[in-house]
Amino acid sequence: MSITAQLESVSKLYGTFAALRKVSLTLESGRCYVLLGENGAGKSTLLRILAGLLRPSYGTATVLGTAPHDARDRVGYMSHAPMLYDEYTAMENLNYFGDLYRERPCLAPEAALRSVGLDPALRRPVGQYSQGMRQRASLARVLLSHPDLLLLDEPFSNMDIGSAHQMLDLLAQVKGEQRTIVLTTHQRELAEPLADVLITLVAGSVNTFVEKPQTSALNI
């Protein structure tokens, strides 16, 4: 498998507080890495470094062969906040974000919304969506640019079980296209069937790195 991203002894300091401590990881294409840990363990900080939104205080990070901030157009990042315009419909949001990726082949906004189970014809502003619908619209935004690396921060938050399983099915398809997924979650039982590697962070350090046996199918 090809290497999508590498972290080598990456630390991130905020004053005297270490959000990450000498983290070294290699992320391969076509695999799903699930980050586990308590609040404040460093999971979101790690995602933000891979997304090119934070720079390490020490150590080096590479994404798709270059510095993370130079690979942003090939990375899809879904944060806790939906990163959508509340006054726009989902279609209007995706049309707007699609214009930002003119140099890259993108999914049609309608196709991206249908892939997450949303109706492109829905005229309700995103600000009036339920939390689960907002999560799905946010994932559609991430998938729009057909990224090589997906970074998902608590993607199942406030989702009903049916919506969560629908998202897992979709992410399994993405992984099957040899793209890399890194997601954080407090709902290990949901994400574990999709995971190839389970990584537990404790106080900014990798505490456990568990590689699951390869299976031929995802049973969710």
Task: Characterize the structure shown.
26% of the residues lie in helices and 28% in strands. The protein is an alpha/beta fold. It has a domain at 3-82 and 147-211: 3-Layer(aba) Sandwich (Rossmann fold). The strands form two sheets. Strands 5-6-7-3-8-9 form a six-stranded mixed β-sheet, sandwiched between helices. A three-stranded antiparallel β-sheet has the order 2-1-4, with helices on one face. Helix 2 packs across helix 3. It is globular and about 45 Å long.
Entry summary:
By secondary structure, the protein is of the alpha/beta class. It is built from 6 helices and 9 strands.
Could you give the topology of this structure?
Blueprint: E1 3-14, E2 17-28, E3 32-36, H1 43-50, E4 58-63, E5 75-78, H2 90-98, H3 109-115, H4 131-144, E6 149-153, H5 161-176, E7 180-184, H6 188-191, E8 197-202, E9 205-211
Spatial extent as radius of gyration:
17 Å
**CATH architectural label of one domain:** 3-Layer(aba) Sandwich
Strand content: 25-35%
Number of helices: 6
* Structural class label: alpha/beta
Uncertain ranges: none
How much is the average pLDDT? 90
**Number of DSSP strands?**
9
CATH superfamily of one domain: P-loop containing nucleotide triphosphate hydrolases
| Main pleated-sheet profile | 6 strands, mixed
Throw out a few tags for this protein.
single chain; 220 residues; alpha/beta; Rossmann fold; six-stranded mixed β-sheet; three-stranded antiparallel β-sheet; 6 helices; 9 strands
